[in-house]
Write a structure and sequence with these properties.
Length: about 240
């Protein structure tokens, strides 16, 4: 259950298309071996598919995140995603298998050092938005999934932000922006989502969540929800 204090610092809008979901969020506070510094890891992820296939892929992703952070004590988000990718590929393409699976996930993996107001993150296909002084700063993602794909496997990029009091960080999957609806049955799109978040950035985060949920319902109307939805906001 969220407490009154917690709702001031974050919100999670999570709307699976079906009972189970290919979108997931992962939160883990961890002190690496030999370190006194606690890092808070937060992953916003969108796995291949939705429903039961998506949920099974989510379980693989969560398992590999736990292995990377808790068992192998990998600290940097880019190196964690490199390891998760290797694990996903090994899980889905066992030795001797005839069919090659390219399932995987798009995600943003954040590592918050709240003590030093620092955020390190790595992003696979989905960007990260920082709202500061009523401006949106978009941090681009690496254009590759956490999984097998056609091009050569390259390491994920580590990005770093020196946080300031009042910053709000948003991470999300594509389900909200890709929802069809409105008067012409068009996609909601990222620009409209960005404008909405910017207009509401000074409101309490639980109010922002309510506004997003209401806007989604109104936009969707009588149309079917096309994908899982996950949007997370954190205020520093």
């Amino acid at each position: 259950m969220e407490t009154a204090t917690e709702t001031k610092n974050f919100f999670i809008l999570y709307r699976p298309k079906d009972i189970v979901s290919g979108d997931f969020y992962y939160a883990q506070a961890h002190k690496a071996l030999g370190s006194n510094k606690e890092i808070f890891y937060l992953c916003t992820a969108d796995c291949t598919g939705h429903g039961v296939p998506g949920a099974l892929m989510s379980m693989v992703g969560i398992s590999r995140l736990n292995e990377s952070i808790l068992e192998k004590n990998i600290v940097k988000p880019n190196e964690i995603l490199d390891n998760v990718r290797r694990g996903i590929i090994d899980s889905l393409n066992p030795e001797g298998s005839e069919e090659e699976s390219k399932d995987g996930m798009d995600c943003v993996l954040c590592a918050y050092d709240f003590e030093n107001n620092k955020l390190e993150f790595a992003a696979a296909n989905n960007p990260l938005w920082l709202v500061r002084n009523r401006e949106v700063i978009e941090y681009k993602a690496d254009k590759m999934p956490v999984g097998k794909y056609n091009d050569e496997l390259k390491p994920f990029t580590l990005q770093t932000i020196d946080l300031q009091k009042g910053d709000t960080i948003y991470t999300f999957t594509d389900g909200f922006a890709d929802q069809f609806g409105g008067p012409k049955g068009k996609k909601f799109k990222y620009k409209q989502l960005q404008d909405m978040l910017l207009a509401a950035v000074d409101l309490p985060l639980d109010t922002q969540k309510e506004q997003l949920n209401t806007a989604f319902e109104k936009w969707k109307g009588d149309l079917e929800q096309v994908d899982d939805v996950c949007v997370i906001g954190i205020r520093i």
